[in-house]
């Protein structure tokens, strides 16, 4: 059994702080703040990737998720650079191009999340965690629900409702991951 508590805890904390930064970005609408938050998000993404790298030997799906997260990170960096250029040059075409790049690399991020979550689910039986199998998969489904509903709401101009739905889905996902983290901690502590 590969111990995953320490890297999974770092992964959880980086998701928590990413959510906090996201909420701040909605409260403080400023281009400079948006760039700083984007840069901080890249740092938290690097922490997530490092955490997944540390867990990669626990199962094949988590190993695959690492590769997709690397591609997502490259996309985030490219998007940040293009966004900075579009802000300083006030170029709408660059801003639109950054949105397109963001969407493309978001697809890689979705595949990475899928592989990671399904990998964590496989570890429940493999490592004997006291956590219901299949429950952790709701993290992935909450992210899909969030993307579909929030995207639809934003398109209709209901930004506040989209923010509320997104926050609720993210908090539910964090809670599920927290419960899973506690089950992992319990099993690894009993192993010693």
Could you please describe the fold and organization of this structure?
There is one protein chain. The chain has six helices and no strands. With 192 residues, the protein is an all-alpha fold. It is globular and about 55 Å long.
- Structural domain tally: 1
H/E series, N to C? HHHHHH
Relative helix content: over 70%
Described by strand count, sense and barrel closure, the largest sheet is: none
Structural class: mainly alpha
Poorly predicted sequence stretches spanning 5 or more consecutive residues: none
Alpha carbon gap, first and last residue: 12 Å
The tally of strands reads: 0
Shape: globular
What is the C-alpha radius of gyration, as a whole number of Å?
A: 18 Å
Mean pLDDT: 87
Spell out the blueprint of helices and strands.
Layout (H helix, E strand, L loop, with lengths): L4 H23 L3 H25 L4 H30 L2 H36 L10 H18 L3 H33 L1
Helix pairs in contact: 1-2, 1-6, 2-3, 3-4, 5-6
Key features of this structure:
single chain, 192 residues, mainly alpha, 6 helices, globular
Summary of the model, kept short:
With 192 residues, the chain is mainly α. The protein has helices at residues 5-27, 31-55, 60-89, 92-127, 138-155, 159-191. Helix 1 packs antiparallel against helix 2 (31-55) and helix 3 runs antiparallel to helix 4 (92-127).
């Amino acid at each position: 059994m590969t111990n995953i508590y320490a890297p999974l805890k770092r992964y959880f904390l980086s998701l928590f702080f990413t959510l906090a930064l996201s909420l701040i970005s909605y409260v403080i609408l400023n281009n400079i703040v948006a760039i700083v938050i984007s840069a901080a998000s890249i740092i938290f993404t690097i922490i997530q990737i490092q955490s997944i790298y540390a867990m990669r030997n626990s199962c094949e799906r988590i190993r695959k998720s690492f590769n997709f997260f690397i591609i997502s990170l490259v996309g985030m960096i490219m998007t940040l650079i293009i966004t900075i250029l579009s802000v300083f040059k006030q170029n709408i075409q660059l801003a639109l191009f950054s949105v397109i790049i963001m969407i493309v690399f978001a697809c890689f991020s979705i595949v990475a999340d899928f592989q990671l979550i399904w990998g964590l689910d496989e570890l429940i039986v493999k490592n004997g965690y006291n956590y219901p199998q299949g429950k952790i998969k709701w993290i992935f489904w909450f992210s899909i629900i969030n993307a579909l509903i929030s995207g639809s709401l934003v398109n209709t101009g209901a930004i506040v409702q989209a923010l509320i739905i997104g926050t609720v889905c993210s908090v539910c996902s964090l809670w599920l991951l927290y419960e899973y983290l506690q089950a992992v901690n319990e099993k690894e502590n009993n192993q010693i």
